C-alpha cells in the first residue's frame, strides 16, 4: 500500500512537471500546427541560464527567471521568425527546421558549458517534504508541480478570458475566418510563441532545481512533450494536464511494480491505445466537427 | 619483348634490392594515430575526458621522440553514435592512420573496432568493458581495462564489509547491464541475497526504485552501476527516503574530484572505483611526466578518464616505434609489439593476453570523505580507513 501510494504520488509530481514542459509545445502546435522540435532545447537553455546565474552570483536560481525568460522568449521568437519564412509545406518543413535548430542549440550549450552535469547547489530545494508520514518528495519537486499546475491554469484562463488569448484561439480554430474578422493572425501566432517561451523558461528553471542537466537531455524532453501534446488532443490545455499526469502515474506504477526500464514502454503502450480508441487525443475535436 | 622483359626483371630486382635489402634503415617518421570519440551527444562528458588523455599521450610521445619521430593525432567526433563511429573509422583509415586510440561505450566500440579490423588497423581502448569485445578473435584489438577488474573491486569491497544482502540498481545499457550481471553472479556465489533493479537511461526520478529497496528488499547496501547523472538521481532519492542501508557503492565516474566538488552534500561516505586518491599526488617520475604534460595542456586536474586515455596512447605509441624499427609497421607488427607490453603504468600494470585484454587490471575503491577520496580497498593500496557503516544521510 505504501509503495503504491508513493508510486502514484511520485507519478503525479512527475506529471505536473511533464505538463509544464509540454504545454508550450501544445500551444504553438494548436496555433500554427507547427511541432517545435527545438522546444526541449529551449527548456534546457533556460536551465543552463539558471545554472550560469547561480554559479556566477551565488543567488537563488529562481531569481534567474527574468533573464531566462528574456533569453528564451528571444530564442522562441527567432524560431517563430524562421518558421514563418517557410512558404511551402510549412507543417512538414518546420519539423526539419526546428529539429536542426535543436541540434544547433544542443551543440551551442555543449560548447559554452561543456558536457559536465550540473544541478543546483542550493540545499533548500533538495530538502524533504513528508506528507502523512509515508509520501516523500523534495521541495523542488513539489514546487515544480505547483508551478506546473499554476502555469497550465493561468494559460487556460488567459486563453479564455483575455483578448489576446481569444485571438489565439480564433486563429487556432480558423485562421482565414479570424483574418476576415479583422484579426492579425501573425500577431496572434507571435504571441503564442512568446508565451511558449515563457513556459519553456519556467520549465527550464524547474528542471534545473529538481534534476541534473547536461546537453543531450533536450531531445528527450521534446519527445516527452510531443507525446503528451498528441495524447492531449490538438492544443488542448486540459488535455495536456490529464495526459501528463497519466504518463507520470503510469511511469511511477510501472517502475514500482515491474521495472523502471519498462516505464517508457508502458506509457507508449497506453499512448497508442488511447489514440486507437480516440484518434484525436483525449480532448481533441473529432474530424468533421 | 624478351629484352624488355629482362630489363623489367632487372629493374624490379634493383628496385627491391635498393628499397628493402640494401637500404639504410629509416630513422624518422611521422606516425598518424586516429581517434574517434564522443565529443558531443550523451557521452560527451566522458569522451572529452578520454580525448584529453589521448592528446596528453601524443604530447608526451612527441616530447620523448623529438628530433626523431613525430606523432600526429586525427580526431573525429562520433557524436556518441555507433554508425558515426564506423564512418569516422573508415574516413580516418582512408586518410592513412596507422592505429586507433579511443572510443567510448561498448555499443560504439564494437562496430567501430570491427571497421578498424576490416581495414587492418590496430585499435586500443579503455572505454568499453563488455566481455564480448575481446572474444571476436581480432588480432589488433587491445583493451587496458576490463569489466572483471571493476567487478572484482566491488565484490571485494562488499565481501570485506561482510554484508548479507545487496540491491543493485543498474542502467539498461550494454556495459552496465553486463557489469550488474557479473556482480550479481559473484555475490550470489558468496551466498548474499541480491535484488536487482534495471532502469532506463531516461529515468529522472529514482524514488520508486529506492522505495522498493527500502520497503521490499531491505538490503544492507545499494550498488549503483550507471553514470554520473543517474548516481546523482539515486543518491538524491536515497537521501530523501533514507533506506536503512550501511553503504552506497558505485562503479565508474563516481569517486572523482568533480563529483566531490559539484555534489558535496550527496557524496559523503559514498564508495566508487578509483585508480588514485583525490586530491591526487603524482609522486613517481611516470606520474609526474603525465601530470606536468596534462597541466601544460589543460590547466585542470586529471581524472581517471584522462589517465586511461594517456596510458593507452602512450603504450600504443611505444609499440608503433618498436614495430617501425623492425620494418613491421602494419597490423601484425604493431599488434605483436603491443602483445609484448608488460609495464607498470600510472594506471597499474598493463600486459595483454591472447584476446588483447589486460589480465592485470584491478580497480581500487575510494570513499568520499569530507571532500577527499582516500583509497579504502584493497588493503595493499589503502590511503585511508573506510567509514562503515556510512551513507550521505548518516
From TrEMBL, chain A:
An annotated GO BP: amino acid transport
Keyword terms: Amino-acid transport, Cell membrane, Membrane, Transmembrane, Transmembrane helix, Transport
InterPro entries reported in the protein's UniProt record: ABC_transp_permease, BCAA_transport_permease
Localization annotation: Cell membrane
A Pfam family that the UniProt record links to this protein: BPD_transp_2
Residues passing through the membrane, by range: 6-27, 34-53, 59-82, 94-112, 143-159, 190-213, 225-250, 265-284
Gene Ontology terms, MF aspect: transmembrane transporter activity
Record-given protein name: Branched-chain amino acid ABC transporter permease
Organism, as annotated: Terasakiella brassicae
UniProtKB/TrEMBL annotation, chain B:
Family: Belongs to the leucine-binding protein family.
Record's keyword terms, sorted: Amino-acid transport, Signal, Transport
Keyword set includes Transport: yes
Signal peptide start and end residues: 1-28
Domain Leucine-binding protein: residue ranges: 33-355
Record-linked PANTHER family: LEUCINE-SPECIFIC-BINDING PROTEIN, PERIPLASMIC BINDING PROTEIN OF ABC TRANSPORTER FOR NATURAL AMINO ACIDS
Coiled coil location: none
Superkingdom in the source lineage: Bacteria
Cited InterPro entries: BCAA_transport, Leu-bd, Peripla_BP_I
Lineage: Bacteria, Pseudomonadati, Pseudomonadota, Alphaproteobacteria, Rhodospirillales
GO biological process: amino acid transport
Pfam families: Peripla_BP_6
Name of protein: Branched chain amino acid ABC transporter substrate-binding protein
Entry annotated with the keyword Transport: yes
Amino acid at each position: 500500500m505504501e509503495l503504491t501510494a508513493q508510486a502514484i504520488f511520485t507519478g503525479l509530481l512527475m506529471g505536473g512537471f511533464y505538463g509544464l514542459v509540454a504545454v508550450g509545445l501544445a500551444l504553438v502546435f494548436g496555433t500554427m500546427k507547427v511541432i517545435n522540435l527545438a522546444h526541449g532545447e529551449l527548456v534546457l537553455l533556460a536551465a543552463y541560464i539558471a545554472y550560469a546565474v547561480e554559479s556566477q552570483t551565488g543567488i537563488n536560481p529562481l531569481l534567474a527567471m527574468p533573464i531566462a525568460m528574456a533569453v528564451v522568449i528571444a530564442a522562441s521568437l527567432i524560431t517563430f521568425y524562421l518558421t514563418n519564412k517557410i512558404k511551402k509545406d510549412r507543417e512538414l518543413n518546420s519539423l526539419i527546421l526546428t529539429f536542426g535548430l535543436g541540434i544547433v542549440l544542443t551543440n551551442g550549450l555543449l560548447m559554452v558549458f561543456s558536457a559536465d552535469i550540473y544541478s543546483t547547489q542550493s540545499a533548500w530545494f533538495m530538502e524533504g517534504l513528508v506528507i502523512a508520514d509515508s509520501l516523500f518528495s523534495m521541495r523542488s519537486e513539489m514546487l515544480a508541480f505547483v508551478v506546473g499546475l499554476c502555469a497550465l491554469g493561468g494559460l487556460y484562463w488567459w486563453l479564455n478570458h483575455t483578448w489576446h488569448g481569444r485571438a489565439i484561439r480564433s486563429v487556432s480554430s480558423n485562421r482565414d475566418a479570424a483574418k476576415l474578422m479583422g484579426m492579425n493572425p501573425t500577431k496572434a501566432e507571435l504571441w503564442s510563441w512568446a508565451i511558449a517561451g515563457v513556459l519553456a523558461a519556467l520549465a527550464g528553471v524547474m528542471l534545473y532545481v529538481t534534476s541534473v542537466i547536461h546537453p543531450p537531455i533536450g531531445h528527450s524532453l521534446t519527445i516527452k512533450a510531443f507525446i503528451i501534446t498528441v495524447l492531449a488532443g490538438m492544443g488542448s490545455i486540459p488535455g495536456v494536464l490529464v495526459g501528463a499526469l497519466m504518463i507520470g502515474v503510469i511511469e511511477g506504477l510501472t517502475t514500482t511494480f515491474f521495472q523502471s526500464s519498462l516505464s517508457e514502454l508502458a506509457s507508449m503502450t497506453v499512448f497508442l491505445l488511447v489514440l486507437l480508441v480516440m484518434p484525436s487525443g483525449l480532448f481533441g475535436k473529432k474530424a468533421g466537427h | 619483348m624478351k629484352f624488355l622483359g629482362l630489363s623489367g626483371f632487372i629493374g624490379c630486382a634493383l628496385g627491391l634490392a635498393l628499397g628493402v635489402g640494401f637500404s639504410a634503415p629509416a630513422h624518422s617518421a611521422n606516425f598518424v594515430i586516429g581517434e574517434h570519440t564522443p565529443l558531443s551527444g550523451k557521452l560527451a562528458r566522458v569522451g572529452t575526458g578520454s580525448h584529453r588523455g589521448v592528446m596528453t599521450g601524443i604530447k608526451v610521445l612527441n616530447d620523448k621522440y623529438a628530433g626523431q619521430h613525430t606523432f600526429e593525432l586525427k580526431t573525429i567526433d562520433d557524436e556518441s553514435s555507433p554508425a558515426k563511429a564506423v564512418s569516422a573509422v573508415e574516413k580516418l583509415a582512408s586518410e592513412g592512420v596507422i592505429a586507433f586510440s579511443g572510443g567510448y561505450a561498448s555499443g560504439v566500440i564494437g562496430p567501430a573496432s570491427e571497421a578498424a579490423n576490416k581495414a587492418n588497423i590496430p585499435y586500443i581502448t579503455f572505454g568499453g568493458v563488455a566481455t564480448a569485445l575481446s572474444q571476436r578473435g581480432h588480432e589488433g584489438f587491445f583493451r587496458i581495462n576490463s569489466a572483471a577488474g571493476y567487478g572484482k573491486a566491488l565484490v571485494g569491497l562488499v565481501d570485506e564489509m561482510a554484508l548479507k544482502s545487496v540491491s543493485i540498481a543498474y542502467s539498461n545499457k550494454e556495459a552496465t547491464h553486463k557489469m550488474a550481471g557479473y556482480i550479481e553472479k559473484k555475490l550470489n556465489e558468496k551466498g548474499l541475497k541480491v535484488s536487482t533493479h534495471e532502469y532506463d537511461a531516461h529515468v529522472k526520478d529514482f524514488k520508486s526504485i529506492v522505495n522498493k529497496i527500502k520497503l521490499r528488499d531491505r538490503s544492507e547496501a545499494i550498488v549503483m552501476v550507471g553514470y554520473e547523472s543517474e548516481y546523482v538521481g539515486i543518491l538524491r532519492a536515497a537521501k530523501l527516503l533514507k533506506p536503512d542501508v550501511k553503504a552506497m557503492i558505485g562503479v565508474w565516474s563516481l569517486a572523482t574530484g568533480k563529483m566531490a566538488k559539484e555534489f558535496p552534500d550527496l557524496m559523503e561516505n559514498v564508495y566508487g572505483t578509483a585508480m588514485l586518491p583525490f586530491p591526487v599526488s603524482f609522486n613517481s617520475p611516470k606520474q609526474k611526466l603525465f601530470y606536468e604534460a596534462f597541466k601544460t595542456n589543460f590547466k585542470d586536474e586529471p581524472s581517471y578518464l584522462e589517465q586511461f586515455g594517456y596510458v593507452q596512447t602512450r603504450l600504443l605509441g611505444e609499440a608503433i616505434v618498436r614495430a617501425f624499427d623492425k620494418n613491421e609497421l602494419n597490423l601484425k607488427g604493431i599488434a605483436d609489439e603491443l602483445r609484448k607490453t608488460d609495464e607498470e603504468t600510472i594506471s597499474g600494470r598493463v600486459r595483454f593476453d591472447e584476446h588483447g585484454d589486460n589480465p592485470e587490471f584491478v580497480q581500487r575503491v575510494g570513499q568520499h570523505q569530507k571532500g577527499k577520496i582516500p583509497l579504502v580497498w584493497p588493503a595493499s593500496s589503502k590511503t585511508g580507513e573506510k567509514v562503515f557503516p556510512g551513507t550521505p544521510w548518516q
